[in-house]
Amino acid sequence: MTDIGWGPVLSESEGYGRLGDNSDDYTLLTHQDIDKLARAGYKPHQHASHGMIFFRKQNKLWDLYEQKGFAMMQMRFDGTLGFPGGLMDEGEAPIQCLNRELHEEIGLDLTKHAFSDDERIASYLHEGKNLVLHFYLKEVSAEEFFALETNTLHAPEYGIETLGIIRVPLFTMGDGLRGFPAFLTNHFAGNARSELITGLMAAKLFTQEDMEKAIKAYKDFIKNRSLIENMLE
Ligand SMILES: O=c1[nH]cnc2c1ncn2[C@@H]1O[C@H](COP(=O)(O)OP(=O)(O)O)[C@@H](O)[C@H]1O
């Protein structure tokens, strides 16, 4: 590949962020797998941790749509959507990595809102990238969520790694597509789309039936969009 100037630091990690992952590229790890990795000092893989902060609030939006609350994601430096988080440094554990990254990227006050190990809901291995992704979930009150959101503007990495914090729309509009299903049609980093779905199910914000409906609407839209794009070529 042509050297386009990744620089000594980025050239080591740029491969992890390449786009085009499929959900099949990721294997869900068991608790035993994680314990084994911890005993081996997390080697031989690279690891990254990301976290979803959310609040639940059943609300009738504009007197029309069933809103379930909000979840926090970010527009990343690379133009994709993801959760706050990042790659683990040498000597760190996944939870330490998560808290350090959340402080850097969203200014999380670790004296009040640090994540704990028992908030990890899933870990995935991407064999091809030799990368393990750890995913955590934290429920806060609506007031805490708004305060955390405001604080992100003062985070050290705001405007650099984190280009903006966004709220995931947790409702579906009358056409069955706009709202949450349309949000799923965006480009996501790593397996952040699957993590979002997993996180919302684990938080019991969606029923199985609601989630299946949303995923079907998103997939149908993608299929139709590529049909139209092919016709235009
Ligand atoms: O929200 C996410 N969920 C799952 N994987 C993600 C998410 N955000 C980034 N990734 C993936 O995690 C790896 C590390 O990326 P990240 O950019 O967060 O680390 P860094 O900030 O330390 O460079 C990359 O492979 C990227 O595609």
Question: How would you describe what is shown here?
Answer:
By secondary structure, this protein is α+β, with helices and mostly antiparallel strands. It has a domain at 21-169: Nucleoside Triphosphate Pyrophosphohydrolase, CATH 3.90.79. It has helices at 7-13, 31-39, 94-106, 110-113, 142-151, 180-184, 192-202, 208-232, and strands at 26-28, 46-61, 65-76, 81-82, 85-87, 120-126, 131-139, 162-169. The longest helix has 25 residues, at 208-232. The mean pLDDT is 91. The structure holds inosine-5'-diphosphate (IDP).
What order do the helices and strands come in, and which of them pair?
Elements: H1 7-13, E1 26-28, H2 31-39, E2 46-61, E3 65-76, E4 81-82, E5 85-87, H3 94-106, H4 110-113, E6 120-126, E7 131-139, H5 142-151, E8 162-169, H6 180-184, H7 192-202, H8 208-232
Parallel strand pairs: 2-7
Antiparallel strand pairs: 1-6, 2-3, 2-5, 3-4, 3-8, 6-7
Fourth-tier CATH superfamily name of the domain at 21-169: Nucleoside Triphosphate Pyrophosphohydrolase
Secondary structural class? alpha+beta
CATH class of the domain at 21-169: Alpha Beta
Beta-strand percent range: 25-35%
Helix content: 25-40%
Task: Give the H and E element order.
Answer: HEHEEEEHHEEHEHHH
Radius of gyration (Å): 18 Å
Describe the sheet with the most strands.
8 strands, mixed
Shape: globular
Bound molecules: inosine-5'-diphosphate
Tell me the span between the first and last alpha carbons: 28 Å
Q: Number of DSSP strands?
A: 8
The CATH topology of the domain at 21-169 is given as Nucleoside Triphosphate Pyrophosphohydrolase
Low-confidence stretches: none
Organism: Elysia crispata
Catalytic activity: dIDP + H2O = dIMP + phosphate + H(+); IDP + H2O = IMP + phosphate + H(+); a 5'-end (N(7)-methyl 5'-triphosphoguanosine)-ribonucleoside in mRNA + H2O = N(7)-methyl-GDP + a 5'-end phospho-ribonucleoside in mRNA + 2 H(+)
Family: Belongs to the Nudix hydrolase family. NUDT16 subfamily.
Enzyme class: hydrolase
